[in-house]
Amino acid sequence: MSYIKGYKCTLCGAEFKEGEVSLTCPHCGEKGILDVVYDYDALKKVLTREYFEKNRNYSMWRYAPIMGIQEDHIDEMLRVGWTPLYRARRLEKELGVKELYVKDDGLNPSGSSKDRASGVAVLKAIEAGAKTIACSSTGNAASSCACQAAHMGLNAVIFVPKRAPIGKATQICLYGATLVKVDGDYKAAFQLSKAAIDKYGWYNRNAAINPFMVEGKKTVSMEIAEQLNFEPTDWVAVSVGDGCTVGGVYKGFAEFFKLGLIKKVPKILGVQSTGCAPFVIASETGEPLKEADENTIADSIAVGIPRNPVKAQNAIKLSHGAWISVPDSDIIKAMSLLGRTEGIFGEPAGVAAIAGIKKAVQQGIIKPGETVTTIVTGNGLKDPVNGQKAVSMPEPMKPNLEELDKFLKEKGAI
Ligand SMILES: *Cc1c(COP(=O)(O)O)cnc(C)c1O
Ligand SMILES: [Zn+2]
Question: In which order are the strands placed within the sheet that holds 85-87?
Fold first, then answer.
């Protein structure tokens, strides 16, 4: 059964019932992104501690009643979510954090958090009777959409900017989708996808426009809450591009709070690269969001015009969190730091939040006694070209013990 009560426009606040709207608010147009609202009183009786303790579906589909999806096909879907949450004992010392947890969302089917949204998108496309799903993305939404669509036998048409890393572009082709590589930036890819979706009537997975993407993304917080025995950390740090992910992170906790499952909503640290930091600049200047350059190696968060600004800004504001930006040099350091201390390889956007935590501790935003969770949103193997910037690759050596001895001494390995 559906527990959806209706939709609320994040811009003008207008409310709509199921069936009254398609994707965005009719009064506000494309910018009027909707929020899915549930009948929380009814859900409170269903989604109890006991429900979760007995639920043996270890994937994000365990939250189906509060995801706004029909449940007929969830058993056929790829396993998305229920990614591991590790206590990061070595990394927390390096960052000066009392207690740090790492949620490794790079272990999703296509290697990023985007699978949470794409899984829902594919189910909604099937519900709508669509044969083709389309999206534009800097790379991960694209590759995950292609992945999830392939598993359910849907066609996918995917628009990426030409700078999309080769690993992600390869994934898209390998999953059998039609890859449209746009000679331009993300903005150009987004605009073309929008025009094409209007023209051909495909199902639209664009993260900003489709309100159900946040319904998938929010499950990461519900998992964190469960994995910490319903006592989430004081802070949750996550990188921000369009703002859909951070909007979801907030909503997941806020809904668990509404359902009486957790006692507090963590403060959210929204992290951007200084090379592309529209949200951070807006919060520092107090001015409306302005278009920013897309000048960072963290391609997944190189979003000059964020498409989901209201949900993102509300997430930080309502959680009493903070915005912070970090230079690419710190992001590169965070990649090797996470790999070296915890054995986890994150892509640049996947580890930006770790660099953000370090800076937030230094600036006194995160206080000495506070606990933190960070979400590694994407797998480092997606972008080994940038990964190489975080390491020093040895030259080949002659295969003899003398050479080896010299080399090992140089490296301090013996
Ligand atoms: C998409 C993405 C983000 C940011 O998500 P937004 O919804 O665009 O803010 C962060 N990290 C990775 C790896 C991503 O793919
Ligand atoms: Zn509106």
Answer: 85-87, 99-104, 371-376, 235-239, 267-273, 322-326
- Reported as a pLDDT band with limits 50, 70 and 90, residue 208 is confident
Q: Considering the domain boundaries, does residue 53 fall inside one? A: no
* 3-state SS record for 234-267: CEEEEECCCCHHHHHHHHHHHHHHHCCCCCCCCE
pLDDT in tens, 27-83: 998 889 999 999 999 999 999 999 999 999 999 999 999 999 999 999 999 999 999
Cα(64)–Cα(367) distance, integer angstroms: 36
Residue 92's domain is classified under what CATH number? Answer: 3.40.50.1100
What is the distance between the alpha carbons of residues 178 and 330, in angstroms, rounded to a whole number?
35
Query: Total domain count for the chain?
Result: 1
CB distance 356 to ligand 1 below 6 Å? no
Q: Please give the Cα distance from 69 to 216 (Å, whole number).
A: 10
Range of the domain at 269: 85-111+213-390
Is 325 part of a structural domain of the chain?
A: yes
Atom of ligand 1 nearest to the CA of 240: 9
Mean pLDDT of the chain: 95
The rounded Å distance from CA 271 to ligand 2 centre is 28
- Evaluate whether 146 touches 175 at the Cβ level (below 8 Å): yes
